[in-house]
Amino acid sequence: MKLTTRFLLLFGISIVLFKLFSVRSIDDRYYRSINGDAKAYYAYLPALFIYNDPTYNFTKHIEKKYYPQDNSQFKDFTTKQKNGKCVNKTFPGLSLLYAPFFALSYLISFIFGFATDGYSIPFQWGIAISHVFYFFLGIYLLNATLKNYSINTFNRVMVLSLILFGTNVWHYLVYDHTVSHIHSFFLSSLLLWLIDKWIKTTRLNFLGWTSIIFAVIVITRPTNAIMLSFFPLLLTLNGRKINEFFLLTKKSILKLAPFIFISLLILSVPLFLWKWQSDLWIVYSYGKEGFDFKHPHLVDFLFSYQKGWFLWNPLSFIAFLGGIIYFYSYSKKTVLQYFLPIAFIVYILSSWWCWTYGSGFGQRTMIEYLPFITVGFALFSQKYLNPILLFFIILLFSVLNIIQSYQISEGILKGGLTTEKSYWSHFLQLKKDAPIAIKTTNMHFISCFKNDTKSIISEQQPYSNSIKTKNIKQANYAIIELTIGAKNGNKDIRLVVANEDGSFYNTEFIGNYLYETPRKMSFKFQLPSNLSNIITYVWNGDTKVNAEISSIAISLYRYKK
Question: How many CB atoms lie under 10 A from the CB of residue 172?
Fold first, then answer.
């Protein structure tokens, strides 16, 4: 690697780590790395090596110890089988990739006195760092592959920058470690490198390692077996014909026996784990979840505001289209060898029962196919694009990508739920909308109490001016409206609604809605019957949070049946 690609790797690792440590609290119950689907992928490791518990009952204690008590981060990742026993719904391949970081985290926890229960801070950070490690190792391998196709240094740097800054890879490196796709990106980059080396050299050890890595890919995410459909394209690019190529390799096929044995052993891992968990050798672990191949969401998957791959990642569309143009100029056969695997991938993935694949940023399931797509784009950009034009295209859309990733992480846009109206009304917006309580037609206004006296809360004065109402027995709803400014992200600051004797007490945490410039927001609270009065104020939770409250008001309503 020349200096420029080394610089990209060092710069990329530095900026990702800096961003990672700046946006993630070291011990925030709501933003742990082992969360969401990652709880399922990861659970094999503590279940096997710490608790020896195929039922995952240990997670009940873990949830109470490390995750919010409101169960907002709870993940039930088991499915019941016909014999009444449960299995982990996910495949275990990701646990194989997590394993070195799990072992290192255990060692660090043991040495420095952290809990060795699999979920303390070192384990959480171990999983986060694994994403950075595997992604940049994948980038290193992809760079080597592009170099083998005589892609010059500048174009390699641009293509690798496109992946890091211009696609949803950025989001899943920095903000969200709950899914498998960064690790799968590494596996696909490694598979591409191995196949390319095998084709170029016909050395059987590359074929053997290809079979082993392919087995890991299958037990990580079975649909990724589709990656092998790019094999004819790689043969063509290397000037090989499939019959002649296999004639060269089959003469020493017996030398592959150890590799085949290891590959079969890896493929059998899910079987042994299913047996360990349920006494059954073969199960369908996803329960009622499955594919509907008769009704794929092709257009939505590609272009919708809700979760369209090309709409949310325009550079992926440009890269895909560039590959089409280049391979068409190469030959009509080659463009089909490039287009058909991607079309088949999109068809399969868009047929899943939940084609949006939940919340998050863009179509995350396409991340692992970026190495194959960017080979075509690298060839196209080197042949057809002016370097200055290429630079500004990637820069422009990378800025857009990073902003939209931030919008998704902050809830400015709702991943998987965005509409055309909300997309454009929030385009490039960096502040979350102030919450506004909705008044419905069946709410009858009773009275309003207001205090326009400015107050400032701080470490020394943690409570704002308050408002106390008079008799409110007829009211069953209160809308609290306040104008407030504070530093964004102070999660402990809260709006309190209570009565004098403390028998009624409710809070709304408002820190994520606050910015230094004061703005108006409102919240609706349901009131229990027979309250004689309520009092409302802002409290900083006895922290060092400072905030300025310009006004606060209570409007009381009676719900009409």
Answer: 24
Task: Please state at what angle helix 204-220 crosses helix 93-112, rounded to 10 degrees.
Answer: 80
Sequence letter at residue 52: N
List the alpha helices (DSSP H) in 411-449: 420-425
User: Do 520 and 434 contact (CB within 8 A), yes or no?
Assistant: yes
**How confident is the model over 23-70, as pLDDT tens digits?**
877 677 888 999 999 999 999 999 999 999 999 999 999 999 999 888
Residue 274: C-alpha distances to residues 32, 65, 87, 282, 334 (Å): 27, 28, 7, 7, 42
Cα separation of 436 and 522, whole Å?
5
For residue range 375-394, what is the model confidence (pLDDT) as tens digits?
999 999 999 999 999 999 99
Does residue 1 register a pLDDT over 50? no
Residue 48: how many other CB atoms lie within 10 Å: 16
Question: Tokens for 66?
Answer: 């490390």
Indicate the SS3 state at residue 388.
helix
Q: Which of 190, 191, 198 is nearest to 238 (CA)?
A: 198
- If pLDDT is split at 50, 70 and 90, which confidence band does 421 have? very high
CB-facing half-sphere around the CA of 176: CA atoms within 13 A = 23
Q: Which residue has the tokens 């590609």?
A: 302
| Spatial separation of the C-alpha atoms in residues 338 and 230, rounded to whole Å | 7
Longest dimension (CA), the chain: 93
- Distance between CA 228 and CA 234 in Å, rounded? 10
| Type of residue at 55 | T
Q: Taking the domains of the chain in order of start, what are their residue ranges?
A: 3-420, 443-559
Question: 């969200």: which residue's tokens?
Answer: 176
Q: Please give the share of the chain, as a percent, with pLDDT higher than 90.
A: 75
Contact 389, 408 (CB under 8 A): no
Between β-strands 535-539 and 78-80, what pairing exists: parallel, antiparallel or unpaired? unpaired
Classify 443-559 by CATH class: mainly beta
Does pTM top 0.85 for this prediction? yes
Q: Distance between terminal CA atoms of the chain?
A: 72
Q: So what's the pLDDT on residue 139?
A: 97
Other beta carbons less than 10 A from residue 421's beta carbon? 9
